[in-house]
Design brief:
Length: 131
């Protein structure tokens, strides 16, 4: 058998908990071999975990990640998977750009309100000192 990994080893490498890895297993994203009660992860599992972590970092749901990973099994050339991944990236970028615009507008509104409150407070403090 080729190189294998234990759950603790993968958890350390990817800076996640063993519980997280078991959760991904429960969701069908990882399928380790079993030696008694021990989980044995293959290089393929390690790559899948790397893809899961990348997908999470990019903000994809576990269902979206599963979809993309499963395409590797359907098309070993990876063409289908790469096209799908590009489509998902474009969708995610559009959503993030919209959120970025919303955040910028919210920050600008907060700055306006903050400035108004500061002026009102300064006026009220002047009136209070004058009395």
């Amino acid at each position: 058998m080729s190189e294998t990994y234990g759950i603790a080893e993968l958890a350390r490498e990817f800076d996640v908990t063993t519980r997280t890895i078991r959760f991904y297993e429960d969701k069908g994203l990882l399928k380790p071999l079993r030696k008694g009660q021990r989980r044995v992860y293959t290089p393929r599992d390690r790559v899948r975990l790397r893809l899961i972590m990348r997908g999470k970092r990019l903000g994809f749901s576990l269902d979206e990640i599963r979809e993309m990973i499963d395409l590797y099994d359907v098309d070993p050339s990876e063409v289908t998977q790469l096209r799908h991944f590009l489509d998902k990236i474009h969708e995610r970028k559009a959503a993030l750009t919209g959120q970025q615009r919303d955040i910028a507008e919210t920050l600008a509104e907060m700055a306006r309100i903050e400035a108004q409150c500061a002026v009102l407070l300064a006026d009220k403090e002047k009136k209070r000192k004058a009395n």
